[in-house]
Amino acid sequence: MGKQKVTFEQALESLEQIVASIESGEIGLEESIVKYAEGIKLIKHCRGVLDAAEKKIQLLTAEDEETLTAAGELEDIEE
Q1: Is residue 3 part of a domain?
Q2: Residue-averaged pLDDT of the chain
Q3: Does 5 fall in a domain?
Q4: Cα distances (angstroms) measured from residue 63 to each of 4, 20, 44, 72
Q5: Which of 42, 45, 47, 74: disulfide with 68, CB 3.0–4.6 Å?
Q6: 37-67: pLDDT as tens digits
Q7: Does residue 76 lie within any of the structural domains?
Q8: Cβ neighbours for 53, distance < 8 A, ≥ 6 positions apart
Q9: Is the C-alpha dihedral spanning 44, 45, 46, 51 positive or negative?
Q10: Does the residue 18 lie in any domain?
Q11: How many domains does the chain have?
């Protein structure tokens, strides 16, 4: 059975559910620790997704600036 890729939104929703279950006090200490560990994994996943998105945006922005500068469009704006 293959592991499905979890989207940012799915990870965030799962993280919110984990926080709610721990804060409710309805689960025991052992289960809270397991949930906490799951939450840490989800946080790492979310950070990875956000870092990748930030790098992609930086790359696209740099490419756009190069294109605009080459076309002379950016130089007119900066003056």
Answers
A1: no
A2: 86
A3: no
A4: 32, 42, 29, 14
A5: 74
A6: 999 999 999 999 999 999 999 998 888 777 7
A7: no
A8: none
A9: positive
A10: yes
A11: 1
Q: Residue 26's domain is classified under what CATH number? A: 1.10.287
Tell me the C-alpha to C-alpha distance, in Å, between residue 26 and each of 11, 23, 33, 55. Answer: 22, 8, 13, 40
pTM over 0.85: no
Nearest alpha-carbon partner for 11 in 65, 59, 50, 61: 50
As a whole number of angstroms, the distance between CA 75 and CA 35 comes to 53
**Cα-Cα-Cα-Cα dihedral sign, residues 73, 76, 77, 78:** positive
Residue 3 has pLDDT above 90, yes or no: no
d(CA 34, CA 42): 13
The size of the chain, in residues, is 79
Distances from the Cα of 69 to the Cαs of 1, 19, 28, 35, 74, in angstroms? 50, 48, 60, 51, 5
How far apart, in whole angstroms, are the C-alpha atoms of residue 62 and residue 79? 19
